[in-house]
Design goal:
2 copies of one chain form a homodimer. Chain A has 134 residues and is an alpha+beta fold. The first copy, chain A, has helices spanning 15-25, 66-71, 87-96; strands at 5-11, 29-30, 34-36, 41-47, 52-58, 76-84, 108-109, 115-119, 129-133. The longest helix of chain A has 11 residues, at 15-25. Chains A, B: Residues 4-134 form the VOC domain.
Chain lengths: 134, 134
């Protein structure tokens, strides 16, 4: 059921300096910043050979990462995103096992324009898990 | 300079239940547990199509993840590991930019039998970064 690691998301307080570090010091290929107001973040993609890292900076008043950054002012790893072929099948299997799906349990269109769900960190070793249908 | 994402490491308080969740509920391919007493962890590899997730459980009295789990009893994302071709060149470039290398700054043989270094989370948006020479 579990496919590729789509991305690791890192919440950062200062997108410009975090991007510069990955680009200039680590020599990584990075995208231009993309504002995603519907998702409350501005994102930079660090394009690695096999997957990507997404640097997320809060955008707007109700950013979903504002609370995380209040607790972790330096930033930190925010979530991992795994690809699945059928997100409804994955959700039903997870719910049957007792895992909690965040929100109303219905897939939403995520930052990449594809259906996503988030799973409760308490059920996944303290790790916020996003599933994305590809 | 920055190559593949070698792995994401997740510290877990209970390796057996974390493994079962990934294997049985998410349908992932998982390895048998491997005790690495020199590194103070027992590890299970979750083999994804493009990279791997490593579940780490403390092993022994001086486990390097014991403090992390004391602060995060449910577990959590512990570090990311990026591949580099020349770890000494990478280290020198990082140090020249002001980034801090943990320990004595010399590469050590890591859990995969290859030279590794860890970089200070304060310099990488609150994220512990491992570099592995491949």
């Amino acid at each position: 059921m579990l496919g590729r690691l789509n991305h690791v998301a890192i919440a950062v307080p200062d997108l410009a300096s975090a991007t510069a570090l990955y680009r200039d010091t680590l020599g990584a290929k990075v995208s231009a910043p993309q504002a995603l107001p519907d998702h409350g973040v501005t994102v930079v993609f660090i394009e690695l050979d096999n997957t990507k890292v997404e640097l997320l900076e809060p955008l707007g008043e109700a950013s979903p990462i504002a609370g995380f950054l209040a607790k972790n002012p330096d930033g930190g790893m925010h979530h991992v995103c795994y690809e699945v072929e059928d997100i409804v099948e994955a959700r039903d299997r997870l719910k049957a096992s007792g895992a909690r799906v965040l929100g109303d349990g219905e897939p939403k269109i995520g930052a990449h324009g594809k259906p996503v769900l988030f799973l409760h960190p308490k059920d996944f070793s303290g790790t916020l898990v996003e599933l994305e249908q590809v």
